[in-house]
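User: I've been trying to design a sequence by hand for this structure and keep getting stuck. Would you show me what you'd pick, starting by listing the structure so we're on the same page?

Assistant: Good idea, let's start from the same input. This is the structure you sent:
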């Protein structure tokens, strides 16, 4: 990346500068960020083609990532460290993206609303990896629990996703739409 692109990406992901005024709903900012991530992924694939990296998309959710609007405490660093430990243990390399999902109809009964924080990861490896098996082991371990009824850990080969790495760059930078 050029110095300008690097600085722009830094600001778009919330590091330095006047980022306190940056909103996820800013379509120009999210589109710009997606274009930069698209280039980063493409450059990585090209520069490492001789090593034949295999790319995957992972989603991590757990009850520790759920936040009530009545007790707005975000445990983002905790979740990021938890995901990082998994990646290191499995000898994977990746980039994390946090996503906030508003759930307006949960838990109901005038108990407030829930914001679920999930961590998406674009990760890769240079050797053998069985995504379904490894996600299943993590889900069965008890370390990842999700009372919302969805599997807390999901891994998929990027080759199975519509749009591949390019599509992921845009998906991971999508603006918030509304609460479910």
């Amino acid at each position: 990346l050029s110095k300008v692109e690097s600085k722009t990406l830094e600001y778009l992901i919330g590091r330095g500068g006047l980022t306190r005024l940056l909103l996820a709903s800013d379509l120009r900012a999210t589109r710009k960020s997606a274009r930069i991530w698209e280039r980063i992924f493409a450059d990585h694939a090209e520069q490492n083609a001789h090593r034949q990296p295999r790319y995957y998309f992972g989603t991590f959710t757990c009850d520790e990532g759920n936040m009530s609007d009545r007790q707005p405490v975000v445990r983002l660093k905790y979740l990021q460290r938890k995901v990082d430990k998994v990646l290191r243990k499995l000898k994977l390399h990746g980039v994390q993206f946090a996503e906030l999902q508003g759930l307006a109809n949960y838990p109901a009964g005038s108990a407030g609303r829930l914001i679920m924080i999930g961590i998406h990861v674009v990760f890769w490896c240079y050797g053998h990896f069985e995504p379904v098996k490894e996600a299943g082991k993590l889900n069965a371990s008890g370390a990842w629990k999700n009372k919302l009824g969805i599997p807390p850990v999901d891994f998929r080969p990027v080759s199975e996703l519509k749009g591949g790495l390019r599509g992921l760059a845009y998906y991971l930078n999508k603006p918030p739409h509304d609460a479910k």
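That's my pick for every position. To get oriented when you compare it with your attempt: Helices lie at 3-12, 27-47, 76-89, 131-141, 164-171. The first helix runs from residue 3 to 12.
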